[in-house]
Each structure stands twice: as structure tokens, then as C-alpha cells.
Amino acid sequence: MFRALVLDQQDGKTQAQVRTLEESALPEGEVLVAVDYSSLNFKDGLAITGTGKIVNQFPMVPGVDLAGRVLESADEAFSPGDAVVLTGWGVGERHWGGMAEKARLKADWLVPMPQGMDARTAMMIGTAGLTAMLCVMALEEGGLTPGAGPVLVTGAAGGVGSVSVAILAGLGYEVHAVTGRPETEAYLRGLGAQALVSRESMAAKPRALEGQRWAGAIDTVGDTILARVLAETCYGGTVAACGLAAGFSLPTTVMPFILRNVRLQGVDSVMCPLSRRQQAWQRLARDLPAAALGEIGHSIGLDEVRDYAQRIVEGQVRGRVIVDMSR
User: Which residues span the domain enclosing 54?
Assistant: First the structure.
């Protein structure tokens, strides 16, 4: 028997309830994992509240992240007792996810826990941190170096944004953070942001080209803010786009691309190949300042997830929310 947060539908509305289930209820997979921690991401919030069309088959256990220990494995790549981490692959959307004390998963989805990292730390990082590191790697591959000039992070107080700020600052970049919440200033400066930019100023509709301000940028929100970021990016700069919290439209022109040689690089962490995931996790173990993790994450229990899911959808959650299965 194990506890899980289960999503169901009643009269077209999503219902979320913590239940006790038999192990036989778990879906197919080669590896049975005892989940120590999961985490609450924006996508999880959409799924749990039914705000977004994330889940199309019910019942479903949400949770796109998990970290724990292997209990059983039919795949020679893993043995009982191995510490593992999982993010993405449609888990929590099409396959039962991490908001449970146990999960049965495909072996190909699992990454061995990086050396020196534990399950709680891995979930402080989670999908948000993996996405942030993939964005940083995209900027580096676009030629960005710490001395090139200011790097902008939008949605900076959110999960991806917070980790992005911490990583970039730790690597020596001059980080400017966009936030619509003035009360997060001390938090963002503590992570290493050297300047704050108001969300309102970035949400103003841009001209085709604006003054050059950013050597590179990580955008987590999309829509008009991303259009302004592109219009303000310096010649030869790269913008890594990974989110759509403000919308999925992109009201821009080709001008930044053909007159300033700007690169817009999409970043996906859901179906990211295993080799690149492993590279990103190793970079996270090395390049994410340990001191930042205490600022970024705080823990809740499984019974608190429904409340926090509503709060994260409403933009009221700062940093990372860790779901501790022992609470």
C-alpha cells in the first residue's frame, strides 16, 4: 500500500485527492521506485487545478519530477538501492508521476543520481533546474561569455528563473532579473541578480527594434515580453526560450534576426535526450551554488499540494516547492 495524489474528473472538472492505493494499481514499467521527494512545477499546478489541458486520461498521479531509490528492476541498468532522478518524458501527464510514495517507470527515463547529490537536492533542482541549465548551455553554445554584458532572466522569481539567476551569477555573469513582485527584490539579489527590471516595462509592446541592452537572455514567459527581449538583444546575442507563463504568442518581426543576427533557441526538457540530460545534471552538481538551494526551495507534504497548486498557478509561489513524501 502507498499514498498518492490522484486526479480524476467529475462533471468535467478535475478533482484531486490523496488516496491509499495497492501497488498493483501502478502502470507498467521496468523499474519500481520508492519516491522520497517530488516537486511542484507550474505544469503540475495546471494539471492539479485543471486550469490547463495537461492531463487527458484519468485517473492520473501528477508530478513531472521525482527522486528516490530503486526497489525492483527488470532492467540490468539499475539494481535495488540505486538512487535515481526522473524529470519529463510525459510522466505526470500520460504516465503516473511523482506525487506518490511509489512509482513504476521505464528504465530509459531514469538518470542515476549525480555524485554528491541527494534526493532532496535533486528535487530542489528538478525540472525547473534542469531547464535552467539547458538554457544556460544554449547561451554558451550561442557564444555568450561572462564578459559580454548583461544577461536578462524573465520570470526570475519562479522556479526556472530562480535557478537560472543562481547559475548565471555563480558563473560570473552580470544578471538582470525581471519580476512583477517588488517584494522579491531581496530574494533575487541574494541569488546573485545585480539589477531588477520591472515586468510592466518589459510587457510594453516593443517596436521592431529597440535599444540594444542584453548580451543574452533566458525567457520563461513568452508573448510580448519575449518580443521585447528579442528587440532589445544585442547584435549576435542568443535568447533561450523555455516557457509560456504569459502566453504562447510571439508578436515580433524578423528584424532582430536579420539585422542584429539574434538567435532564438527553444529549450525543451521533457524529451531531452539522455546524454544531454546527464551532461546538464553533472553541470548542475558543479555549477549551481549550494548556498542558493536553501533560498530557492522549501518543503511541503503531499496533503498540502492541492493548496500550493492553486497558488503556483496564480503566481503566488516563489522559487521551488519540494514535496516530501515522509511528511
Answer: 2-113+292-324
